[in-house]
Fold:
Amino acid sequence: MLSTIYDYAIIGAGGAGLHLAMAMLADAWFANKKILILDKDTKKTNDKTWSFWEKGSGKWDTIIEKSWGKGKFNTKEKSIDLELAPYLYKTLPAINFYNFARKKITEAKNIDWIQAEINTVNKSEKGIKIESKQATYIAKQVFDSRIDKAFAVEKDKYFNIQQHFKGWVIETERPVFDTTTFVMMDYQIKWQDSASFTYVLPFSPTKALVEFTLFTTDLIEYGAYDILLKKYVQDILKIDQYHITKVEYGVIPMSDYPFQKANQEGIMKIGTAGAHVKPSSGYAFKNMEKVAQKIINNLKNNRPPTNNILSKKFYFYDSLYLDVLVNHNELGESIYTDMYEKNSIQQIFKFLDEETSLWEDFKIITSFKFSPFLKALWYYLTGMRIK
Structure:
């Protein structure tokens, strides 16, 4: 027999779910609300690393691993220095966030965090019924981070790019890294003629994350990343003696698929499942934090939690960008070179944060080569492809 009907249930204790739970904890309006968190994993391992930018100090500064005020954008022909102020670029191991959130949630009297794998989520007379292998739960409102099954069936109707990467944390005996500057993108080594680059986060003079990243429709063989990483470390960083202390690998879907169409009364998709990961960049941490606050404001003002969450304008921009990358993947380097060479990093960050005006959008968009985006726009409007 069910003894508790929760006001809110959050399925998935990842970035989106925990951001939402933490936002509820921080707002006195939710103090008397009964909240349930369900996840099949214990969230006691460091399964990913989030990086993000923000102005000055932030609420996660006590748990980040490192921050930088300077960056670089490199190609074989040029190197662009990025002076980030007033922004800082920060990196956060997921385990730090999980542990921080778990401590806060455990101390709260109105939240239950249960390890459970969910089978079904359906409407019922009492509310939204959540069934796991172990138990059944009822909630008035569910926030679900599981990607809807329809995506696997319908995704080929939309533009899809895989952001896939493999990174080594390497340590050296002698100091070789400049800890004041990270490398946002380095195109000196690429995988064939693709949208691919290396990313470097120096944690100390003798320790750094070196990560090879691709924005392509298909994955490459797992061993190919190692070949590219080794070449970058030896040929570009000029490091012969080092040892690998950690390896990370990941795949992030970048798609203009309308994930939000799976929303229904009482059930809202969040995170990747709700289209809350920026499809043109894959950056998610700060975006999911912003979405969580929008949801909080909607609930407090008796609006549907899905109200005004996504920007149609930026969804349109992202769709055009994905079209170009899908059909002209070789243009990845030139697109980003134009963006970083012709715009300030502050304006780029503001644009990627979806905070720019139409005039500011225009100035960034016109810095790109016109032809491929015009073709993408024509296809968007007419469904016909210009050769």
